[in-house]
Structure formats: structure tokens, C-alpha cells
Write a structure and sequence with these properties.
The chain is α/β, with parallel strands linked by helices. The chain is built from nine helices and seven strands; from the N terminus they run E-H-E-H-E-H-E-H-E-H-H-E-H-H-H-E. It has a seven-stranded parallel β-sheet, with helices on both faces. The protein is globular. It comes from Stieleria varia. Its EC number is 1.1.1.100. GO terms for molecular function: 3-oxoacyl-[acyl-carrier-protein] reductase (NADPH) activity.
Length: about 250
């Protein structure tokens, strides 16, 4: 595990699932973590308590990434507590399956506001908090941006947009010493995917995906968290603009 000293990370959507896994892995590597959540306060506080009990540093801060004032408050509280910012992980995301004959304007705006506008505003608002040494931004995309599963046209489009944003911002922010990369998970077990009946319940969908995955299983939040921790470490200092498909070989 790459170690780092005196670094501070903001992880959006970190009250459960992949975000919680990232927060805990970063904390284990020596990073102070701001655990952002939109509505699940108890989940965020549980993540913070687990980090603190393990000897790490963490706080929970509420905020909807699709609201500019919430994002401002998120970074203000982060820097007021820890005095600096080194890492931003854009993990907050939403999805709602729907075939073309069932999707609505509300579906579109809800998913794009969180999955596309949210990361843009988070990065924009973070810039005044990075010091001249810069830092690292990691966007959590999705394998759906390239695999295009049926019933996920809006979600796949939003994550394809995030891939493009990653490439553009890597070029824009390089002169500020800020690296920007994306990790795009494949089928990953989390509270949300389990509750939706996708993975972890021996569903037909899970069986099909496992059969198609060369490494023979669905992923876990820990799988994704380890990649994010590497990307935010000094060992990854020559990587920017990369979109890493973390899917066990599933394409």
C-alpha cells in the first residue's frame, strides 16, 4: 500500500459502497479523509468511526454535489478542519435503469446533474484549495461508458461524459500540478447493487457477468479502493488523463 504523509482527501458519496471503501483505504495509507454524503448521515458517521478506531483521521460533511453552495461548504469545512487539500475523489453517482420508451426528462437531469455537473463543480470549487504543489483528482466512472448495457442509455452517456471530462481536465490542470485520472469499475458488489438485486444475491445477471469476466467474480469496493490509492500516491506521479477499466477483464 503506497504511504503518504500529511495529505488530505475529499471523497464524495462516501457513506457506503465504493466510496466508503476508498475512504477507508486512503485513511489506512495515512490520509486524513473528508467523508462526504448527500443523505446517509448514519452511514457516513459509521465510516468515520471505523477510520478513527483504526487510528486514522476523518470527518463527515453533508453536501449534494449537484448544488454549488453545498460544494462550497464541503471544501470550506475540509480546509477549516485540516488546513489543506491534496486529493479529490469524485465518487458520488446515481443511476436509474430505463429503456428508451420509459425514460423521462427528470431521469436525464437527475443523473446528469449528479454524474456530470457534480464532478465539474467539485473540481472547480476545489481549485482554490490546492496549494502550488497541486495534487490528484480521481473520477469514479463506470465500465458502462464503453460496454453500453441495454437499459442504461442515460447512465452510460453520463459516464462517457465523465471519461471526456477526465481527459480534458488532465490537460487543463497539468500546469497547476494537478493530475486527473478515472477508475471505471465493472460489476462491483456494494450495498446499492445488492439492494437492486444485481450482485451478491446469486441473481441471473450476476451469473451471466461472472461467466463473462475472465477473473471469474464480481469486484468489491476494496478492489477499486486500492487502485484509487495508488493513483493518488507519489508512485503514480507520471499518470494523468488515464481511464482505467477496473473490471476483472470484463469488456
Amino acid at each position: 500500500m503506497p504511504k503518504r504523509k500529511e495529505k488530505v482527501a475529499v471523497v464524495t458519496g462516501a457513506s457506503k459502497g465504493i466510496g466508503a471503501g476508498i475512504a477507508k483505504e486512503l485513511a489506512a495509507a495515512g490520509t486524513a479523509v473528508v467523508v462526504n454524503y448527500a443523505s446517509d448521515q448514519s452511514g457516513a458517521e459509521a465510516v468515520v468511526n471505523e477510520i478513527i478506531q483504526a487510528g486514522g483521521q476523518a470527518i463527515a460533511v453533508a453536501g449534494d454535489v449537484s448544488r454549488s453552495t453545498d460544494v462550497d461548504r464541503l471544501f470550506s469545512q475540509a480546509t477549516a478542519t485540516y488546513g489543506r487539500l491534496d486529493i479529490v475523489v469524485n465518487n458520488a453517482g446515481v443511476y436509474r435503469p430505463g429503456t428508451i420508451d420509459s425514460i423521462t426528462e427528470e431521469d436525464f437531469h437527475w443523473q446528469f446533474n449528479t454524474n456530470v455537473l457534480g464532478p465539474l463543480m467539485v473540481v472547480q470549487k476545489s481549485l482554490k484549495h490546492f496549494d502550488p504543489n497541486g495534487g490528484s483528482v480521481v473520477n469514479i466512472g463506470s465500465g458502462a461508458s464503453s460496454s453500453h448495457p441495454a437499459g442504461y442509455s442515460i447512465y452510460s452517456a453520463s459516464k462517457a461524459a465523465l471519461d471526456a471530462i477526465t481527459g480534458v481536465l488532465a490537460k487543463e490542470l497539468a500546469q497547476r500540478n494537478i493530475r486527473v485520472n478515472s477508475v471505471n469499475p465493472g460489476a462491483t458488489l456494494s450495498e446499492g447493487t445488492k439492494a437492486a438485486g444485481l450482485y451478491g444475491v446469486n441473481s441471473d445477471i450476476e451469473k451471466q457477468l461472472v461467466a463473462m469476466t475472465p477473473l471469474g467474480r464480481v469486484g468489491t469496493p476494496a478492489d477499486i479502493a486500492k487502485i484509487v490509492t495508488f493513483l493518488t500516491s507519489d508512485e503514480a506521479g507520471w499518470l494523468t488523463g488515464e481511464v482505467i477499466i477496473a473490471s476483472g477483464g470484463l469488456r
